[in-house]
Design brief:
Blueprint: H1 4-10, H2 45-60, H3 65-77, H4 82-95, H5 99-112, H6 117-130, H7 136-146, H8 151-164, H9 170-180, H10 185-198, H11 202-218, H12 223-233, H13 245-256, H14 262-278, H15 283-300, H16 305-324
Length: 325
């Protein structure tokens, strides 16, 4: 019986290499699992034949057009095989092949294997060889339209943007993704990545704080937005969370309105703790920290209660040291 997955990838009209006259000069090289393999893998006949011939061309160091076609069959059967991709690159270099055609081939492969690291790595190498990333933003956008949190697509997109200076239109793209899913942490991370490169000027920081607070007003328990808010505040000249009083005022308004998002409480704890230490052992601010830490430990973030108990105890210790001086 034929393997159904092999039929899908190679087609029912696929001709075995052993029956191809142009491959008559090649003796296939079987895989050597040793005399007593612990777990013998039940390879299909097609899989075994393709890789037996692949091992043979590696052994003879053949880098020809037929060898390139053989790697295509091998990658249809196992697109995660690093050795096949590496040898394919060696063949492409040896043949001085048309790398634009290789990009077209990779677009098809990525469409079927969008979360395969080896495919994306091969794509990067080919783009570097061409010194042309003109297709990469569209390619990654298509992948992200299917799965907006595809780590490999984001990684490749950041590499292309950074390497070929493609920052110009990235913020509108990221804003669209955030509008579609405000909890898309990858999109928030990409926004920070772009602005970190462009520069967090005071004007940019102010704009981003307003942008983020408006998003938090819509979804108050959005961890991604709260993390981004903290990240932007840390870009201020002194790096303090209290550098922009309007953010603390915004957070206190949420709290006083009854919101008890753990991300809101964690932010308030960090700000009050920072202020208490700056103010020379401010007991009023310290009591706020202790109360919020207790609420987190007993109600809103019980799974990390030991951490919040530690935060409160550590602040007490720091304030005691300050008072003793």
């Amino acid at each position: 019986m034929s393997d159904s997955s092999d039929e899908e990838y190679l087609g029912t009209d696929w001709l075995p290499y052993s029956e191809r006259s142009e491959w008559a000069d090649v003796k296939p090289l079987p895989q050597d699992d040793g005399p007593n393999p612990v777990v013998a893998i039940a390879y299909s006949p097609k899989f075994r034949e393709v890789f037996d011939y692949f091992r043979a061309i590696i052994a003879s160091r053949e880098k020809t057009w037929r060898a390139l076609e053989l790697t295509t069959d091998a990658l249809r059967l196992n697109p995660a095989n690093y050795t096949v991709w590496q040898y394919r690159r060696d063949i492409l270099r040896e043949l001085d092949a048309n790398l634009k055609n290789e990009l077209d081939y990779l677009t098809e492969v990525i469409g079927q294997n969008a979360k395969n690291y080896q495919v994306w790595h091969h794509r990067r190498v080919i783009v570097e060889m061409l010194n042309d990333a003109s297709q990469e933003l569209e390619l990654t956008q298509n992948a992200l339209d299917i799965d907006a949190k595809n780590y490999h697509a984001w990684q490749h997109r950041q590499w292309a943007i950074r390497t070929f200076n493609l920052y110009d239109d990235e913020l509108p793209f990221v804003d669209r993704l955030i509008c579609e899913d405000q909890r898309n942490n990858s999109a928030w991370n990409q926004r920070f990545f772009v602005l970190k490169h462009l520069g967090f000027t005071p004007e940019v920081i102010q704009r981003e704080l307003v942008y983020t607070m408006n998003r938090i007003r819509i979804i108050k328990g959005n961890e991604s937005a709260w993390n981004y808010l903290v990240g932007v505040l840390r870009q201020s000249e002194d790096g303090l969370l209290s550098s922009y009083p309007e953010v603390l005022e915004f957070s206190e308004e949420l709290y006083n309105a009854g919101n008890r998002s753990p991300y809101l409480l964690a932010f308030l704890i960090d700000v009050y703790q920072e202020q208490a230490l700056q103010d020379g052992a401010n007991e009023q601010l310290a009591r706020k920290v202790y109360t919020l830490c207790d609420d987190m430990a007993t109600k809103h973030d019980v799974i990390r209660r030991k951490y919040w108990q530690y935060v409160a105890a550590n602040l007490k210790s720091q304030l005691s040291s300050k008072s003793a001086k």
